[in-house]
Write a structure and sequence with these properties.
mainly alpha; rod-shaped; 2 strands; two-stranded antiparallel sheet
């Protein structure tokens, strides 16, 4: 016991309780950070898969456009090409802003 302002205060007991609570809080925070890291790894993998699938889709669109142009449907191919350019332009402006 320690005298604080003339009162007996169990200072070491308070310090022990404080240290136990602080340790429990740090352990809880570390567990939550581990979970968050696992979620981020999953999301990163999903984003990579999405980008890969978008690349495949764009390649298939280009192949389809070339095939339509070869078969004599230039108007549909031109519409798709202009839509693709608009999407690419919008994507580029988002990257610059973000």
């Amino acid at each position: 016991m320690v005298l604080v302002f003339g009162l007996d205060v169990p200072l070491f007991e308070f310090m022990l309780v404080f240290m136990v609570l602080l340790t429990a809080g740090i352990i809880f925070i570390l567990i939550e950070l581990k979970r968050l890291n696992e979620y981020l790894i999953i999301e990163r993998a999903d984003l990579k898969r999405l980008e890969r699938d978008l690349g495949v889709l764009e390649h298939e669109e280009r192949v389809l456009d070339e095939e339509e142009a070869r078969l004599g449907f230039p108007r549909a191919a031109a519409k798709r090409r202009s839509a693709r350019k608009k999407r690419a332009k919008k994507k580029a402006t988002k990257k610059r802003k973000g």
